[in-house]
């Protein structure tokens, strides 16, 4: 009865709304078919509850017409999943810089500039409003990057210069701040907000802000739209590639000014995904950047997607988790074959245009995975295992020093995950610093802010990192 009430609430709500290397250890990647037929995928079929859903809830008869990736959906998708894949993309922004893909994208190298725009006029009041910070110039860069499947993709990032000129010796250092965008809508990205103003309720930074800190210290700032053009929130490979290619793009855009600049990356929670992934991928994806990459700081990071999904299945934040799955389905369309009719209605509803301002509020409905899947025990399926494997950075060695921080009382991610990441990187020879602090998920960010900025300041000034690998987690 509880499941039936949950589904009824979902459908009623939607009807009103719609009226959304060193590389890793060698492990065989689980093979998985993208067929929409569970039996063809080697999965068990639906349980009686799931059969009831698809019998009583019809599939969406008219998918919302939205522009998908101009290069087309993945070629191995069945037609019905291709339609669904296109329908769950975020609507076009109306700005060709964000919406269009060059037909000859494959001929460009990662980080090559495709287009750029001076956005100082719109970024200045936005930065003043959101960060209480003045700037001298802001430039929106569009560049070639690489998606999670190794295919050419587009990326965007904003290069922001402080109001005072850099007068210290050497090239001006760059802080790459990856905000916790946590959004499904392309108009919620930092790049779009800085170039158009706040058209939708969104929040792209924490307070106190690394953005403000960097500009006050005279550093250049790069803010990448690290969810990628498909807004694939929480996809680490996409995020890491976008962050690294944003630095390549800045070096290509202004080689005389930034060609030899030191840079460091930072991100918390959703932004931590990008900073962490960039550190883990830089040696294999952008090795030429390693000599200039001073280090990566991140906190509040999920390192075990499998544990997280199981822990909060049907919980008070399960709708948030399921929204994350929707975002991942844009980059990993094999997920779409696991959706039942109820999930398809959700995926193609206005929820797919969610911004961070309302992202967390989705957790009010405790929806179990069984209520939105078409196979029994979906989290234990071969499909889920393949996705968990792809999302994991376990076994990789960071190419740069790390500053790992976390809250002891984080209700969603145990501090033991951060401590284990620190120990693993220490064992691999990385100069890793652990800073386990008091507080929950949000308070931990504030508690660690001073130590994090001090560590980043040293990396940007070229001071070698020593790490805390001879201490215990939490000591500095």
> Strand order of the main beta sheet, please?
1-2-3-5-4-6-7-8-9
Count of discrete structural domains: 2
Shape: globular
CATH fold-level topology of the largest domain: Rossmann fold
Helical segment count: 17
Low-confidence stretches: 1-29
Number of DSSP-assigned strands: 9
- Specify Rg, calculated over alpha carbons: 22 Å
By CATH reckoning, the class of the largest domain would read Alpha Beta
Q: How would you portray this structure in words?
A:
The protein is an alpha/beta fold and 476 residues long. The protein folds into 2 domains: 31-91 and 304-390, no CATH class; 96-303 and 393-460, Alpha/Beta hydrolase fold, catalytic domain (Rossmann fold). The protein is 37% helix and 13% strand. A 9-stranded mixed sheet has the order 1-2-3-5-4-6-7-8-9, with helices on both faces. Helix 8 crosses helix 10 (270-285). It is globular and about 70 Å long. Mean pLDDT is 87; it is low at 1-29.
